[in-house]
Amino acid sequence: MATGPAIHAAEIARLTGYRPRTMQLPIQEMAHSGHILTHEPPPRPAGSTGRASSRRYHLQPGDWSFLTAGKPLPRWMPWSPLWRIVQETFDALADAGDSPRHPALISSQLREGLSSLGQELGAAGLLPVLGFRSTAPGAELLATLSETLPSALSRK
Questions:
Q1: How many CA atoms lie within 13 A of 96 on its CB side?
Q2: Do the domain assignments include residue 120?
Q3: What is the pTM assigned to this prediction?
Q4: Shortest CA distance to 25 belongs to which of 16, 13, 15?
Q5: How far is the C-alpha of 154 from the C-alpha of 99, rounded, in Å?
Q6: 132 closest CA partner among 123, 141, 124, 120
Q7: 101-130 pLDDT, tens per residue?
Q8: Which domain holds residue 116?
Q9: Residue 73 lies inside a defined structural domain of this protein
């Protein structure tokens, strides 16, 4: 909200991985308190039918500069797809105490999970950050994950 245009509560929820109703109440309360600004839709013409435009929310970056000691606010990192990759990785690896799984089984499970996340990763601009090649053999996929995922999670 601080680095882009005004945005609907549902879009904030989608970008952060929460359900719209989960985000709506805190955002409304922050708007009521003055911590978040609103862009009100124009009034609906008399006699119109259908839903009206909903309120959009935004921040004035200067109002939040105390959080960054006067430096610019950090760029938004879409954390939801990154944490899904972490979960896919944990799911593919053997549990503690189990015998190690064969790298081919691990990479096969990871490839399946990553293919289902491909569009989301692409939309979030994370494919170049993670450096995945769709045709990478299993060992390369594991090496790429171990090299790029920690730095992607710690990006600022």
A1: 0
A2: yes
A3: 0.60
A4: 13
A5: 30
A6: 141
A7: 887 888 888 888 888 888 888 888 888 888
A8: 79-153
A9: no
